[in-house]
Amino acid sequence: MAKKMGSRLLNQFGNGFKMGIILIALAGAIALWFVGKASWEIWEYVSLASEQKTESIQWEIREINASKFLFSASYIYQVEGKKYAGKSLLHSPAYLNRPSAEAELKERQMRAWNVWFDPAHPAHSSLQRSFPLKSSCYALLTLGIFLYFLFYTLSQPMVSRSVSNKI
Known about the structure:
It is a single chain. By secondary structure, this protein is an alpha+beta fold. The protein contains 3 helices and 5 strands, in the order αβββαββα. The chain has 2 domains: about 20-50 and about 130-155; about 50-130. The chain is about 55% helix and about 30% strand. β4 and β5 (about 125) form a beta hairpin. α1 (about 1-45) runs antiparallel to α3 (about 135-165). It is elongated and about 65 Å long.
């Protein structure tokens, strides 16, 4: 019954409506991916709400590819008398070659570092905490495109019917 009704609608409104449904499905899937990714990153940002000094930290340089070098750190911190160990890969800044990363590493080793952790689960920690602005913008943009295709496609049959009724 529902299948017949769906096929009757598609036949009534033509190929433009069929293409609109495909665009809605595609835009919806893409928007779902970006909204899910942004939601996860925002949850990570919000959950790392407390800050503590590291007791010790060991740095290393990780080669991601031939022209991208990042810092990785293993650290120990203490929360309410209990020691925790963590590991973080710092995504920014990225260096184009190992010598420039090594020069920066000497400066990083001299500074004191704070660790961000989840007060409810202190073992969950990171050395970097930044709001996921890029992911949030992508999520809003793809959600807007999805809503555009949705409202445009759903309004087309009504416009087509009102125009054909007047003729």
